[in-house]
Design goal:
6 strands, 14 helices, four-stranded mixed sheet, two-stranded parallel ribbon, alpha/beta
Length: 281
């Protein structure tokens, strides 16, 4: 039984497993098979063991209840949520050692990447690295701090603009005009940011670590960020010379990011304990 605060329960739903089509299952299987081949060589060494420890199945879309049972053995739990949830809610779940997982499955037209939260990103991307205790502790500490950070109205406008663009790009029936309208709204939201709030600074740290982090040696890093672990295409690109590699430090807070584009630079942390040290600083 997972104890979820009342104000967070409204974001949770049941995973209706029967809604997945045979195409959904085939997409999952294809993504996981190419992911295993690539990330076995290029992800942090906890990745493959972490898949098993956290209940991420290869040949079929995992049941979130099964992920929850597996995570309970390492002090975490999992719940099914409705797609995009507000950042502060996601972080509060994380601070409670609960992994929120969107149950939607990306379409066959977006196999290598989708900007919208889906079960590939939230389960296969986020869960495996949680099996590392030092990384797990960083997530909890980060979630606790980020959930209490002051957020501006501009931050919320940006969140809604990102959500709307992500949703429309994943909609197979969306027109180019509708997508362009959402892109214009997102640019406007970015342009309207007048100052960097506490929440925005922490969002940047999350992006350059939890979502797009690299670990190990600067000249031969491994992948641990969920955004990269859920996209072989971006994972491959991240390790090329086209993407500048910088030593991880609090200087990452000076770097904004564009969710619609692949990143021009990434940060390499020596180990997961360093993440917690920098967070405290």
């Amino acid at each position: 039984m997972i104890r979820i605060p009342k104000h967070l329960k409204k974001y949770t739903i049941e995973q209706n497993y029967d809604n997945y089509t045979y195409i959904d299952q085939a997409c999952w299987q294809f993504i996981m098979k190419i992911s295993l081949d690539f990330f076995n060589k290029h992800a942090d060494n906890i990745y493959c063991a972490g898949l098993h420890k956290t209940g991420i199945t290869i040949n079929k879309i995992p049941k979130i209840n099964n992920i929850n049972k597996k995570l309970s053995h390492i002090g975490w739990r999992a719940v099914c949520v409705r797609g995009f949830i507000p950042p502060h809610a996601f972080m509060e779940f994380q601070s409670l050692r609960i992994l929120p997982i969107a149950a939607e499955m990306r379409s066959h037209k977006h196999l290598t990447y989708t900007p919208s939260p889906d079960i590939v990103h939230e389960a296969a991307g986020h869960a495996p690295i949680i099996a590392n205790k030092d990384y797990s502790n960083y997530l909890v500490n980060y979630g606790d701090i980020a959930a209490k950070a002051i957020m501006s109205s501009e931050d919320m406008s940006l969140y809604y603009a990102i959500r709307d663009l992500s949703d429309i790009k994943e909609n197979l029936n969306a027109t180019k005009k509708e997508i362009l309208k959402c892109k214009t709204a997102l640019k406007k939201a970015y342009d309207n940011i007048s100052y960097i709030s506490e929440a925005a600074m922490l969002s940047r740290m999350n992006w350059w670590t939890v979502e797009y982090g690299l670990i190990g040696e600067l000249n031969n890093p491994k992948i641990y960020g969920a955004g990269l672990l859920s996209s072989v295409g971006e994972g491959e690109n991240s390790l090329t010379k086209k993407v500048k590699k910088l030593p991880f430090s609090l200087k990452c807070l000076k770097y904004n990011y564009d969710i619609t584009e692949q990143q021009p630079q990434l940060f390499v942390v020596k180990n997961y304990r360093e993440l917690s040290r920098q967070l405290k600083e």
